[in-house]
Sequence to fold (749 residues):
Amino acid sequence: MPVFWIVLIVLALAAAGYVLGQSRALTQVDGDARKLHSRPGYYGWNVAFSTALPALVLMVIWLFLQPAIIGNSVSSTISDDAIPEGQTRGIVLSEAAQIADKLSSAVSQGVLSRPEMMALRVDDADGMGRLKDAGLAVLTRPPVLGAAQQYLGMQRMGSIWLGILSLALAGTGFAWALMRTKPDFRARNVVERVMRGMLIACSSIAIATTLGIVLSLVFESIHFFRLYQWQHFFFGTEWTPSFGGGSKLGMLPLLWGTLYISVIALLFAVPIGLFAAIYMSEYASPRVRSVVKPAIEILAGIPTIVYGLFALVTVGPMIRDWIASPLGLGNSGSSVMTAGLVMGVMLVPFVSSLSDDIINAVPQSLRDGSLGLGSTRSETIRQVVLPAALPGIVGAVLLAASRAIGETMIVVLGAGAMAQISGNPFEAMTTITVKIVGQLTGDNDFASPETLVAFALGLTLFVLTLGLNIFALYIVRKYREQYE
Amino acid sequence: MNDMSLVERRLVQDEIKITARDVQVFYGEKHAIKDVNVDILDKTVTAFIGPSGCGKSTFLRCINRMNDTIDICRVEGRIALDGEDIYDRRVDPVQLRAKVGMVFQKPNPFPKSIYDNVAYGPRIHGLARGRAELDEIVEKSLRGAALWNEVKDRLQEPGTGLSGGQQQRLCIARAVATAPEVLLMDEPCSALDPIATSQVEELIDQLRQEFSVVIVTHSMQQAARVSQKTAFFHLGNLVEYGETDDIFTNPQDPRTESYISGRIG
Fold:
């Protein structure tokens, strides 16, 4: 039975449980809902949850575990002689899985009946011929075909058992919950406990994902550091990966490029964003503000690849022709300056929007106090509003900084891919993110340091931005306490 | 008895500090203040009383042009400080506010140190020529606000860390440090407990030596305790203005009588 139908049946049962639970609770008190411990709806939800949740949880766990269990048991039936020279058990298994796919679609298209398929042999000319005519030609050796058939058989058994078990579980839950439906049953407390459990589960998923990401980065990085000395990675000043061997994987040029471009971007974005925020929150009339603020925030909605195109075709050549070449500072279309400026434009809305909110959060009474002492508007902004908002603004800038450090597309198209340490902002340089992409594009051998270095770079980047984010959050939180 | 006659004699001698003639205030379409005429004396505490929304705070904010910061607010009529129209084009509201200081309903110390809070005005207006002189102004203002003894050892700590009453006295010290001629107080005690209130009231009485003080208050007892002159506002009109004692013991207008006896409000 397909899983889809099982889910549908369980849900239908749960819906019926809702209606039945509610009406059963009401009939027990002769329709007077006030005699129930909880409102009637909670009795309904209790039955619905008891029906659906255990069955659905069982299904999820089953579907996660089934492929691994079947894979293991099929694998154990393949004898070592059946594995050809130069291949691994894994390759044979995946071949069997592919054949199993073809066979099952042959059954569903009616080319072969299920018993015919299970009885198929490599030398069965009729069966093979029919498969070939249907465009599902199977060319294989007997042990692999056997494995595929076993695979299908176990899958079928698995889904039958899944159907039986989950329906039984749903039915049991349904009956049990209905039996428990009595006027003094604390249905609301039960339902709310279940809801709280679901909320906790959702938030744990986010945390678990983060942990998973970090762990995968850490493990792959450990692999890398087994193959490549960490001193050379962290303190090496040369980045010349070559898959043939003998590569130098020093991350300093990449770190330098990352920081250089980010600093230029922030030097551009922070003053402009801050002044825009001051205008919007202190000077603009509400009407102007309602137009200008969304307009600036549109910048935040532009995909970074589009900024990259802008850098590549407009800003890059412009900086080269008007500034770099006349000054004799280089003639490269892609440069740190290009990427930095375009990234700065991208960051303006981050800085301005966050700072605007923070400046607006400064109480009006402080402004009144300052104006009431005879200070001008600009003195008030400089000496009272901005100092009060400063921690929040610093937080905004740090969030923008972590965006800048993690940015990829603008750098690829704007700054090029040359790893070097140079002070000249009109030369091409590159960043950590670009090189991660570079090392992982194409055919990868996940045993070579040239590929694994990407994970070490990723971990470095992660630690860098995580540190900035924590620092930013700390500052923002400290700021929040100030007016309470 | 002797004190009383002293005060009365001084009132007679005092000159008029602020003159208001036919003042009208509009918030958009709303006519918030109607035909207010009042003469406020120098070195006197004048109390504005009246029910909520009667316009007393609005009128107070006209005297230092704080209403200018509200876009939809429009002021008509003439308000003069020492005979000079403060709504004249030649008057910069920024300079005016240095002469007419203000203390607000809720204590609003800046998120700076106690010292910097008090030194804020003098620094902006260049009242001190050096660190020593600034120190002197700060100390004098804090003493004037009866706060010096409580904070002299922690001038560098944030002003927001003080208690509510201390914060309000800090705000008074801040206003005093700018050397104003008039001090406007918009319900300065409404956020304070009774002990802090009595400290601030005592302070107001001392401030009368140097400034003309105008105080808006909801508490009639407070008006009776601290003020020499009282103005009663009702629905945007100045109903009655006179000696505080007269207003409370022998009100001329039936509305004033109803209000002070608690029948309207």
Remarks:
- The domain at 44-75+93-260 of chain B is CATH 3.40.50.300 (Rossmann fold).
- The first helix of chain B runs from residue 2 to 13.
